[in-house]
Amino acid sequence: MKMALRACLRTKPGLTGLLSQLSCSGHAAARRAPALVAQRSSSSTSQKIKVDFDQSSGVAVMHMQSPPVNSLSLEFLTDVCIALEKLEMDKSCRGLVVTSSQPKVFSAGLDILDMYGKSPEHCAEFWKAVQEMWLKFYGSNMITIAAVNGSSPAGGCLLSMTCDYRIMADNPRYSIGLNETKLGIVAPFWFKDTMVNTVGHRATEMALQLGLLYSPAEALKIGLVDQLVHEDQVLTTATETMTKWLAIPDHARQLTKSMMRKPTIDKLAANREADVNNFVKFITKDSIQKSLGMYLEMLKRRKA
Amino acid sequence: MKMALRACLRTKPGLTGLLSQLSCSGHAAARRAPALVAQRSSSSTSQKIKVDFDQSSGVAVMHMQSPPVNSLSLEFLTDVCIALEKLEMDKSCRGLVVTSSQPKVFSAGLDILDMYGKSPEHCAEFWKAVQEMWLKFYGSNMITIAAVNGSSPAGGCLLSMTCDYRIMADNPRYSIGLNETKLGIVAPFWFKDTMVNTVGHRATEMALQLGLLYSPAEALKIGLVDQLVHEDQVLTTATETMTKWLAIPDHARQLTKSMMRKPTIDKLAANREADVNNFVKFITKDSIQKSLGMYLEMLKRRKA
Amino acid sequence: MKMALRACLRTKPGLTGLLSQLSCSGHAAARRAPALVAQRSSSSTSQKIKVDFDQSSGVAVMHMQSPPVNSLSLEFLTDVCIALEKLEMDKSCRGLVVTSSQPKVFSAGLDILDMYGKSPEHCAEFWKAVQEMWLKFYGSNMITIAAVNGSSPAGGCLLSMTCDYRIMADNPRYSIGLNETKLGIVAPFWFKDTMVNTVGHRATEMALQLGLLYSPAEALKIGLVDQLVHEDQVLTTATETMTKWLAIPDHARQLTKSMMRKPTIDKLAANREADVNNFVKFITKDSIQKSLGMYLEMLKRRKA
Asked: Which family does it belong to (chains A, B, C) (predicted)?
């Protein structure tokens, strides 16, 4: 585990899809130290997430800056949720753009280090945080736009799919998709539901079975993203697009969004505990742990 | 209200999308006079709806001719339903083409004057008529083809979506879509269900949140209409298309149509009263009435 | 009936869609002779279905070779299910390619001779076999690829839709689709569900109402098949494609496939008896039998 961790410390977003399939957060072990919890809660919000809120437009931009690849660790997920909740409660904030400050990657997805060699209790806590992130984003009253300025596999793809609109950098080196099967793990039903709502049943069936990572052009073609622009224009385009959405009366838009998404949200909300248990039971299996371990080894060797 | 009414009397289908977003029926106040009800019931059927039934082909053409913009008022909806019911009961009538006799507009949608400044009772009666129209058209045993020869926002779009096939005039000045949110109101769940059945979940989510009105070319691309032809050819093409559909044995086609649509129809049929209550509660809110009032003022100023 | 049978004996896959809409199996009457049942069970497996299993790759190829057009008769369906079951139980078999050894046709669909002039008991037994085929293929743990090297109407289309991937010969003379309504019969709900899962609600609604048979190019456009290749390359491409699918860990892929398909499978599994009763009640109606009889006469005249 220790060597795997060290490998991860050096992990940078790769140019190949494989490398960014799952991810590990740079300094996970250190950050888990209980003594630092209280202090980190606030400081990490500013360290790993930078929120620029423009009071005049009512639009916030959330920059994910958790090196090296914005892995969705338990800690980072918690920070993201706290930041989102604050904005959600601020009536003057009507729109949110989510983007990455890390080069070449939007988010590399769920942090493998929160699933590998961890206690069932830790895995359960981690999974609750993943659920929480999805529930909050998919059900947000704000207009949410994903400015996908880099690769976005697995949990990164999920995060972008929770938004109302997805703009991706037109760089063929980037990819996006739910590639869980390639690692021997399975996207849970609400990942699947979110993708079906986005690209339909058939495209989802093939994407999930094959763990497909799509190039920006392919992602646009199947509707996984809504628009491609030059890398430099992703954030600007997101802001311009936001203006169009802000023209719609909030109340009517929110009710409409809720009507579209509520059935999918209710399905998880009614089954959170069972879903946590399923995840913990699956992820702690010897065979699955072995798969994850081999994957970490592969990452390590790649970086050596 | 009086000035708004006068403004409406002069309303013509505009070339901009906004003007045709919702509509008001020319002489609503006069037509509401109770003393005229009995007489109108039959005469208006011939005045506002002209049905040409060709016994030899088994195909009827329903021309909507309610000036200026075929607004779906309580009265007009009632007439439409009566006309449809007659055809439905006539075993020799196998197909129905729905089209407009008004220039530039198919139908401008639900009549705003039946929702603005009206008693809850009136609003409830109006909404039941909207439901009735949808239930009858979406569940029709006949082959129904919409010959969309003009703009078709909101309720007009809904009417066309209830048909088995949609042919639209290829005039970029026309538009079609469920644009309710732009007025601060919300398309009910069965409008949404009909659109999801037509263009899928994702396109519906974006269309409804943004209240999008699509050009004919855009509508074709997302599948909101099935075919574009020159303005002069809409009705002819509808008749030709009907021939193809008439080649299918009625019984098998009807059972198949019912299998596809029954779950969606049953959902409203089982919840009509709750849906009426929701509508009345929503539409009679001060904030919503104010929105509608402002919209009527805008129409008035435009026409001044 | 006898003449119709003789006509069928000479039936070859036609170049027109109509001829291959439904089908009749060459020597049905003879094969039904009870005395031959036991003997046939094993021999027909080798005669009408040839399975090549490559132990090294873990991939089996099922060649349907039931002349003239791979009609899905009660007997052939039984053989197909037995062959599939054997492969399913063989842990070393991970992938299955289904293809046809008959020229110009993949499968002409359900055998009309098992529905025409038969006892309700026979019809019920036949329908159970159709259900069984669908349940086994749609729920298969193996990777299933349809190498559609010829026309594939009705039940033939259903069989190909149960697979994970469909490669079709790019020959405009071939067609694919659920064309039941053209014969006055109705595709049952699970045929419909399978098609909705493949091409979406709207395309299914139109396809089923009109009984559309699509050219390969049209089928690709709506997503009814996934890939077109030259006639000579169908099987080779299937094998190459299989390699891509084999790269995914079986366990994760199987769980994912089950997650996508289980709700649809459960729906029939919970309603098999009612579905059999519906079918028998419908197919034994005088009007339907008359339709089928006329269709058989037409086939006979065509071949005279």
From this structure: Belongs to the enoyl-CoA hydratase/isomerase family.
